[in-house]
Amino acid sequence: MPTFIWMMVVLKVPVVAAFVLIWWAVREPEPADAEPDDEPGGSDRDPGAQPRRPGPPRRGPHGAPAPG
Known about the structure:
Elements: H1 2-10, H2 12-26
């Protein structure tokens, strides 16, 4: 008899875990806290940065010598 009661208690653990997992999956997501407006919006790039120069021309098919 004690084994039966022990098994009834132990077998409830995965059932409760399944219910918690399902509840966690379907719950309403918490609203994201608004970020403080200390910083102005926009890009993190430096406005005075120069654009990158293009790379060298690509080689032809099958490793042919560089054009030029």
